[in-house]
What does this fold into?
Amino acid sequence: MNKILFYVFATILYLTLSKALAPDNISLEYIKTSKDLKKFIKLSPATAILEKTMKKGYLIKTYYQRYKIVYAYRPPKLIIVRTKRTLAEKTSKYIGMSLFRIDEDNKISTVPMPPGYLFIGNKKYGRWLYKDKIAYWKFYQSYKKLPQYFGWGSFTPDKKFLVEAKSYEKDNTPFLGLSNEFGHKGSVTNKFLPEDTKKSGFRRVKFRNLFRNYRKMNYN
Amino acid sequence: MEEVLDRFLIKIIFAIFVCLILYIYRYIHFIIFPRGVKQVRSPFNLTGNLTNSVHYLSRILGLVILFSYIQFNRYFTLDVSLVNIFLITLVIMVTYLVSISIMELIILYKFNYKDEVLKQSNISYATICSAINLGLAYIISTILIKSNNSVMIFFTLWLFAITILGFAGKLFIFYSKFQFNRAISNKNLGVALSFLFFFLGNTLILVKAFDQPQIEKYSYMLRIFFKCFSSFLFIPFFVIAIRLIFSLKVKKSNSQDILLDSNKSISYGISEGIIYLISAFITSWIVYNINPTGVFSIL
It folds into this structure.
């Protein structure tokens, strides 16, 4: 009986210590909601763009997200965080979009919006250029790299885009773009998001291919 | 031909040098273990006391195992290489003997060399000492490789390993049916053989734990700690599983004889030890050969 008690105690101790001290766990921060991204952002204005949502584990899954934090005045930073399942699943359709924004007055917004929405229309960073009576947003030379950081590619927002986005944000509704340019099925996102965000670590192999591979490796 | 001769001559010089180091060992041993003055200074009679022979030769065997991991570096000149090796062997020799001393204090704290070996010829004690010597030799050689010539890392890892191994050695009382101290006092060879395999099993676990990429000292040591901890949780599971799968049992009528009858105790001790070693091997497979980090899949 004593041995069993000792074993149970040792198992609990192992799990507790692993949770608290194991290098694999302590290296990554945990976020419960998008608002928790605040602790990674030291300067404002800044926006956190969700690049990738991943899961790991066979039986018990752990969820991870990769964000690109884009600042106005410094180079972007990539972070990987652990998160809970509900948040991971809820936000998985907003890949390539801004899930957290903090403006110059430190006002925070977590409604999923197109990347760079925070900077569009702000005269500090750019201006409207008119072409065929339509106003397009153009960043100043100093901020010319921002569209690249946002993953816009050839996309240029116009005034209508901004007006629509603002009304969606007011209603607390995610905005995927005027013709669904952003999000996991978005045309712009799929075209310009980095390739490594689409790659899975898992090699999906069917049973019949597994045996075929063995045969090829050994007899061809 | 010149190259071949040169290499051959270096081997001869190196061989003589190793003999010199072994000769120095006799006197270092005398400094660290003053109780064994007789064993070290006077000519050793191999047929005089079997226990003493086992005890003495196992230490030399451990030391030689340890030396075999030291590299003769041909990038330096011959004299620099020899001085380099001399310094390394000296440090290792002292570390090895201090480790033995610490481990004996932890595991065999109720016994001492003079009483058990010289007076009582306790073969059980000598066998346990041999197990400790060999186990420590393997551990220190692994640390030597992992420390990449850094003295600080070497001593940090050495202290860490000794702590884990000492603690693991104390767990023998939970594993074995033998009453450890009493069985040694009764010169029971069964307990010694069981401990021999037990200690080698633990050594295997620890050596495997050290065998992982070393990026940062703190996280490396934490990883070793958790690997060893999880191994010690899995071993009892496999011990029970192996006994159940292969129906390995002791007849109820014989269960008391194990501690009294010398033949039965040897037989039981060996089986108990080998079962532990088998479990240690399977555990090392389970714990170390599963990719610990896993892979990410896109949600």
